[in-house]
Amino acid sequence: MKTKSNYLLLSTLIGGILFNLLFWSERLALNLLIYSLFVVAVTFFNSEVLKSKKFGIYAFAHLFAAVLAVINNSDLSLATYYISFILFVGFTHYQHIRTVWVAFLATALQIVAIPASLIKRMSELQIGNFNLKPIFRPIKYIIFPLIIVFIFTGIYSGANQIFGNYLSSALDNIQATLTKVFSFIFQDLSFERFVHLCFGIALTGGLIITFYNRFFERNEAKLEEVLVRKRSNNKIRTLWNEIAHIFMGQIISKKLALKTEYIVALISFAALNFLLLILNGIDIWWLWLGKGKDLAETNYSAELHDGTNALIFSIVLAMVVIVYFFRGNLNFYTKSKTLKSLAFAWMIQNFILIISVFIRDGHYIEVYGLTYKRIGVLVFAILCIIGLITVYIKVAHQKTLFYLFKINGNIWYTLLLVFTVINWDMVIVKHNLAHSNTIALDVDYILSLSDKTLPILDQNRVKLNYAPNKNLYGSEIAKPENPEYYKRQLDERIGHFKERYEKVSWLSWNLPDWNTSEYFRIEK
């Protein structure tokens, strides 16, 4: 244990220094990959972490996300990087965890609890015959009081302006004193950079030091993936019993509660199937077969926005309703075959509804071009299909809600990595410019996208400067203020990119910025 503590504490210190060197005044790019390689390597050589298949999968997934952050360097790639990092830490330090949601919570707890973990490890630090345990033993008595005092100090400073001013003045004096001390000892180390260094040490410790409390592992281990029939205790009134009793009074008796719930579910699914059948019939006639073209042209934007949002919400709600009714003993009811058939029919109808969402969004893209929101609708529709499939498996094979969370979490994380491979900014700009003669081109929108699109925008200046009057489904494309309006905007964007690119070092290197700099021949 002593050797492990020495190794982890030394790695934490080195990691904090590395964090400070990599990220101070730099953009997030190549430095993310370097830091990830360090954390993964330290974790690999940590004898407390089991080198299992799970470790290999999530280490590879995270390093893949780090590479994508360098290759694409988009907001999505950065979000994927952070998510994959959290999951890597959670699943490698607590390998009995089975869901991504619990891995998130475990990592959050580990990072928040880093003061306790560091004190525990430092008390185990041993150099020869010297150890720090006697020094750190009394610290446990003052940690909690310090946290409480810190919290209430912040509250009181917000509640009392005079107290807040005194506190702010005191902190400014402390900062000025520390700045003088550090500038005297280290010429290049300011107080802000010292705080950044401390943050790096704390973060690195939270990522590589396992928190000794395994609360989430123990509690998740109690959850099952397959439903088991349970004998109900009539003395215990559930929330569902209470709600049902309010609306149905004495109709529900203790012996007929399951039968009553079955009848309620049967009537509900029959009515919902009939209702959705009418809606799908209208969609197939007007939307799929194109009989409602004139209707769609009247208010195309509102029809697509409102209709698509409502349909997506209804699909999510449909899955919630199915999960609710098939949450327990109703799965084992002797007459549940009819109910399951109605539930399966409703799932199929919801799948048809998702096809309508795809068609609506496709029409919208055809008329107005690609945007992140319209791509998001397509992605959400795909997730709804996956959700319906897993809900079907849950009902058909009597799985638990925990199973749904587990399988969907894994699938969503995999899809997140897949979608991050695509450079969406370039896809949007290239598609919209290629179809500029047939869509309502929103030049302001494509000019608002990331700097990686600057070369393709520069190559298509003519399309940005000229927007003829045309009317598509009731939507007229606006002309720019003058022929040079968008050209000036683009030149300003290019100038800002040059200034930004020249300020950072090789640690901020990423492929999109490099391609853009090569196109505009920018020398550092």
UniProtKB/TrEMBL annotation:
The chain crosses the membrane at residues 6-25, 32-49, 100-119, 139-159, 194-212, 262-288, 308-326, 338-359, 371-393, 400-424. Keywords: Membrane, Transmembrane, Transmembrane helix. The keyword Signal does not apply. The keyword Transmembrane applies. Pfam families: DUF4153. This is DUF4173 domain-containing protein.
